[in-house]
Amino acid sequence: MAKKYVYFFGNGKADGNAGMKSLLGGKGANLAEMAGHPELRLPVPLGFTITTEVCTYYYQHKRTYPPALKKEVESALKKIEGIMKNKFGDLENPLLVSVRSGARSSMPGMMETVLNVGLTEKTIPGLIKLTNNPRFVYDAYRRLIMMYSDVVMEKAAGIETKDDMGIRRQLDRLLEEAKHKKGVKNDTDLDADDLRELCDKFKQKVKDVLGKNFPDDPYEQLWGGIGAVFASWNGKRAVAYRRIEGIPGDWGTAVSVQSMVFGNMGDDSATGVGFTRNPANGNKHFYGEYLPNAQGEDVVAGIRTPAPVNESSKNAHNKHMTSLEKSMPKLYKALLNYQKRLERHYKNMQDIEFTIERGKLYMLQCRVGKRNGPAAVKMALDMYKEKLITKEEAIMRVTPSQLEELLYPVIDPKAVAGENPIAMGIPAGPGAASGRVVFSANDAVKLAKEGIKIILVREETNPEDVEGMRVSEAILTAKGGMTSHAALVARGWGKCAVVGAGELQIDYAKKRCRVGDQTIIQGEEITIGTGEVITIGNVITVDGTKGVVYKGQLPMIDPSEENETLNSFLKLCDPFRRLKVRTNADTPEDAKKARSFGAEGIGLFRTEHMFYGKGAEVPLFLLRKMIVSRTTDERRSALNELYLYMKSDIKGTLEAMEGFPVTIRLLDPPLHEFVPHEKAQMENLAASLNISMDDLERRAQGLRESNPMMGHRGVRLGITYPEITETQARAIFEAAAELIKAGKKVHPEIMIPVVSDVKELANQFEIVKKVYNETLAKYKLKKFPYMAGTMIEIPRAALLAGKIAEIAEFFSFGTNDLTQMGFGFSRDDIGGFLPCYLEKGILPEDPFQTIDIEGIGEMIKIAVERGRKTKKNLKIGICGEHGGDPMSVEFCHNIGMDYVSCSPYRVPIARLAAAQAMIREKEKAKSKAKKGKR
Amino acid sequence: MAKKYVYFFGNGKADGNAGMKSLLGGKGANLAEMAGHPELRLPVPLGFTITTEVCTYYYQHKRTYPPALKKEVESALKKIEGIMKNKFGDLENPLLVSVRSGARSSMPGMMETVLNVGLTEKTIPGLIKLTNNPRFVYDAYRRLIMMYSDVVMEKAAGIETKDDMGIRRQLDRLLEEAKHKKGVKNDTDLDADDLRELCDKFKQKVKDVLGKNFPDDPYEQLWGGIGAVFASWNGKRAVAYRRIEGIPGDWGTAVSVQSMVFGNMGDDSATGVGFTRNPANGNKHFYGEYLPNAQGEDVVAGIRTPAPVNESSKNAHNKHMTSLEKSMPKLYKALLNYQKRLERHYKNMQDIEFTIERGKLYMLQCRVGKRNGPAAVKMALDMYKEKLITKEEAIMRVTPSQLEELLYPVIDPKAVAGENPIAMGIPAGPGAASGRVVFSANDAVKLAKEGIKIILVREETNPEDVEGMRVSEAILTAKGGMTSHAALVARGWGKCAVVGAGELQIDYAKKRCRVGDQTIIQGEEITIGTGEVITIGNVITVDGTKGVVYKGQLPMIDPSEENETLNSFLKLCDPFRRLKVRTNADTPEDAKKARSFGAEGIGLFRTEHMFYGKGAEVPLFLLRKMIVSRTTDERRSALNELYLYMKSDIKGTLEAMEGFPVTIRLLDPPLHEFVPHEKAQMENLAASLNISMDDLERRAQGLRESNPMMGHRGVRLGITYPEITETQARAIFEAAAELIKAGKKVHPEIMIPVVSDVKELANQFEIVKKVYNETLAKYKLKKFPYMAGTMIEIPRAALLAGKIAEIAEFFSFGTNDLTQMGFGFSRDDIGGFLPCYLEKGILPEDPFQTIDIEGIGEMIKIAVERGRKTKKNLKIGICGEHGGDPMSVEFCHNIGMDYVSCSPYRVPIARLAAAQAMIREKEKAKSKAKKGKR
């Protein structure tokens, strides 16, 4: 059978349906469904869709059409004319049509549309007679000329112009001139004569600029429009969009040709848009806006404020206006019925467009409606309760980033529209926040005490800044990437942060900040309560979810503690997961918070974090003493003091986790990170060690490294200074033993970081085992549960995982370091090239944000396979920052990990992502089984 | 059949032979061979060997012997007595024996020996009567007491003593006292009475100290001696030695019991050692020394100067002495005959021991003789020419480190014996050198101009030091590893260097250097020709082959240009290699040198090296200008100037390589490495860019990175600044085009470094291809050969090699970086932990010196497999520092690489190693085939 290129729809029938998106495009398939499905049969303006196969043919055959197309289009047009009782190009009763694109996947604004096709010098008089509205007709004509000359005669013809010289812009100027001449402001103030005159000028201009007459033949207009849509599929913008979104270039677009209906034919006409439920909060009410006597594009253009369709759509801006419900109750009732049927039919919230032409309601479009996070969660839950969708469908309805909106305040999207960012960076900590800028952590602490909301702005942060970071509303740095100190700390706290905003030129001395030649932050001296004078900068707003910084204070939307909904939704998800979700937490407080978010253990407790922030002074001092020690005795003496602090910290955390496993990573960072920079601190330290400042500086200098990330850190410290491992093991085991004695449940897991060889692990396990036995003896215990395992974060360890698994009881992938070493990308230095890599498409994503499945993922896969080959039930998890990234969570699920671990605020997201991964896996298995049967 | 534990030898017969080393130990097997093989049947003192199986039994059965042993020993003893016509313990004609250890693999000095066993109060009179030499007998007795009490009664009994309290030391003191009392200096000045008295005192002391009588029963002595040898197998020193040498603990030692012969029985007696060829130069002359009227241990102890065995063994010290050839011509002739037969039999140079007892010649030992490098090469060549050995055997006879001795001066081993090193570090540049210490490169340059030999001592070096490094005899640094800047530069030049000598505390200000509390280098002010006063340190000697530093000037041995021998030997090797050998060279001079060493191309030409050293001022300045450029225009302008220098450098190198392939690596290091530190240079740069110093400093600061090794470098520079790649490609292609126009042959290979993804490569290749086409057009050429490939030095690239090979025409493994990233070891920072790792046996070797086959090797293997799967004939080489390491070369051979590339001075070593790898491969294949047949 010959291929069918044209699919008719309307009048209760349709050749196609919603399942034919790849052939008819999203728009065409939905129009067919609305028009023809027995459950719907809605009043859709008649039309037909030219298939995507024609697009493919068009590009494969030097921009020509299949020979059969012309006839099919003409016959479809005839069918419309037969039902509509009018005729394309008819002098008395002319049919006008729209020509629109429609790809399989939505590409909003990327392709072209031409309206009012069929309006010519010859058909104008008939239409005027028919509508008795010459202004409407000339207005439609000037719109046709503007769109057509731009889309078909210029763009599709491949004429390249600079912005100011394009035909569209030139016609716009003529329109402005006409209004200016008449002394009016709005297009609507031009009358029929003005517009007729304008149309003549337009046509003259088109001829002057493009060297061609504006076509006066309706068929020429139609084929021109169809060709322009196909041509726009390979327009620059569309190609760029597809590359970013990963849409294949050979999918092609369909073209829908539909008879025009007009909402601007008088007071019995109107046009509007609506959502079957409120997209902002998910409430189950029809929600929409309409404009009486207007065309669709007027709603979009925002020239007039639209009125609410009903009472429940009223808001502060439009509550005084008459709703459609009141003004056209009968039509509203029909609309209400249609939207309800659409939602029930599609089993999802629908975004609809409608037009009322002289008292008759037409449905122009329907599609799945966009919604914000809280609305997505509420709708998913409600629709599941209404038995509209299954549990699985409900879970799949919410994207992880929508869930994120329930956890943090965000900038009101309306407020952002008009604002220009003053800087862009890497979104490192979620949510948004406003405050006054300070450039030093000390100032931050002092000003926060005064109750001033502040934002800490630094080149980069280090452990000494932590207290200042904690009291800040947000953190903004000029350097660093997703796993820089600032980003790690911020994310751990769920605090808003933007890092690596490279354009910022911070002048600490002058307490100001410039971008290019502009000063964006200017300091001002204020006197605080203590009488001290501190310089503080102006207010900025930081969007840590998007990585954008604005000047001034922008309005926020608070998720307003949707905890009940959130928890109900997550409880729905939990039974579907195979992956456990743990958290990265370093304090009893974080541990408790993570438990409240549903964490099933701690996947990463960093011992070194007790040296940051509040209460860290004494332990940090002791750590420094230990670090600059030269002899084992000096070091042991510092460690013995430090040990008590370690024990208490660990004990609190073990207790907070109520018997859930707690993975404690032994000291990881290069020691010199902790060496003090301030003179007073150095002097204090020298005095305590009874050495000279010179001597201390020499020792500190000796710790400096060229590439500390690959230096003397992690297990390498434990090997060279066994007493460091011993002390930590003692703190962990004695904390556990004391809790057990007090009748509590504990499950510590000791994790050795930066391992590259099994012998390193053997060396450390021997120390751990020895201390364990000593602890049993000391506390008169027979045994208590503990595990000893390793991070897999060094490429060599991944390859040698089979050997390492001979003694490791668990693996935890440190994907930050694995990504660093695997790519040879220093996380702190990627600012110089990663943005360029993403822009040029060399990398699809920041590999520190989403696991690079192809490369680093391959390493992980090798390690999992080799590890499990040696030890079948090896416990495997991930504790890098990727543990909270949905795509990475799915990867972890797919390769069979046991758990992911992420910062407390991302635990809910990981729970969702893990459930979705499992559902997707089942769906794939089902569809595979189906295929197998066929 | 019952196991045989005792193997008799002597009198023209032997139960064993040389092939039974694992059962009889090296010594026992060779004694059997000498005594019993039909070709030899040399006069070996009769004896028997107790097998290593007895040792194994001994340790498996709580230090007891197999029941059958006693009888077998007694019967072997009987056999000796029967032939010798004497008897163990006999009053009139007593047999004396020696008891010696002998492991499968030589463990010199690690195990015990007891001589003169069987001498008791009862047998002394008979022996006196027999020898008519009471002094000889009492001397033998006091030796027995000294050895036996030490070895058997103290050490084997497990009595631990501090050095000063050991029985041996206490008896030594009694000996000293006796000489002191008599007023003489030498042992030989004591007469028979003195010695008899001393023996009595010895026995009393033994009883006092060890609480036991010295055994007076010959059998007790014998079994004590045997037990002591077995016990010494697990002595501390032996265990440590085995661990270092990788000798398994369960091999065990054999014990050889042999009738004593005495070279100290008068003027018709003598003892000596010899080599069948000269071990110092390989000359084909019997070479040896002897002492008349002396025992073997006297030769070793060096109390008397030995005489030469013949005329050709004469040297400055002994030329006045009478040779054995002259003093005992008949015996010498016999000896000459024996040694010749031994060499012919063993087909290798033999190290022999002999004793003449009252005019009768005995052969005591023979083994393969140690030799130095030049001798090894000469002997291998000569023996091949003599048809004594095959080509393959000749090639396998020379170790790569022996070959190295032919390339560099070394410290005279005799001179080192008494010296204590003042510091130890990593052997980074070959050979040895002496000179006065300077602490600054500038001073080095000035002093070298004065003709003073200097050694540059620095914490670490950087590009600004290069001129000073070049003029130094050697380089010594406190920091850095095998691939630090200092090591890389030194090795490239074949210059002596020790790096990472961590104990050095360099005080630049005071121009001195301390180790612990000791000042080892002290500055002294001198006035040089220009009138300038410079501080210069004392003389040190640096051994860059061993990584050791000595105070003062030590005598050197110069390889004295053995070029002819070297070349003949390497020509022997070449046909056996499958691997090509290329060189890492950055200048036309280096390229020429490498060609003279036989390099078959350049595997690594580093474009950045034109910015180091002599003549680098202008290019370096231009590079700096380029680096701190902020706009593309600024950068292009600097690059356009730089381009001419690049072209000329590359042209010279391409020309020097005469059509051999030259792999040119595009700019690799992080840019900030080149930012100047000196103020004058900064000012100059700022002026040239027409910017303020503030501005320049800010730009320089912006280039600073936390982990530059994983920062903005290599291909990342080429992606962010395509003009850098473009300029380099232009320099390469235009250099090539100009040479082709001049009728020369060229083969440039463009290599992109630090690649982690195929898209990076695609991006760069596009630029390269464009420039290539432009060059063809400019020079009116149709085409010329070039290749475009990549370094594989990032773990991710190794895993994704299959994809990368889709466009790469060759791979070159950058094993330095692959080791850095694979292990997460920063080459500059391993000083903090690597020594500890090696000491604790966590790593078997420095992985920057020898490829870590297990881990990094696995990565390379994966990359080779995946790369060749995509492109079957993919050209693969290695250009890391490992390319000159013999073990690594063998690995490269085994996994099927096409070539290795190393610094010019290591090319001969790689040629040898590659040939040996091939021969080993063939041998394995043969022995596998043999096994298959069986």
Characterise this structure.
The structure is a homodimer of 934-residue chains. Chain A is built from 35 helices and 36 strands. With 934 residues, chain A is α/β, with parallel strands linked by helices. Chain A has an eight-stranded mixed sheet. Chain A has an eight-stranded parallel beta barrel with strand order 29-30-31-32-33-34-35-36, surrounded by seven helices. In chain A, strands 2-1-3-8-6-7 form a six-stranded antiparallel sheet, sandwiched between helices. In chain A, helix 18 links the parallel strand 18 and strand 19. In chain A, helix 13 (373-385) runs antiparallel to helix 14 (391-397). The radius of gyration of chain A is 33 Å and the shape is elongated. The two termini of chain A are 23 Å apart. The mean pLDDT of chain A is 90. The interface between A and B is large, with 49 and 49 residues.
Observed structural traits:
homodimer, eight-stranded parallel barrel, 17% strand, elongated, alpha/beta, 934 residues
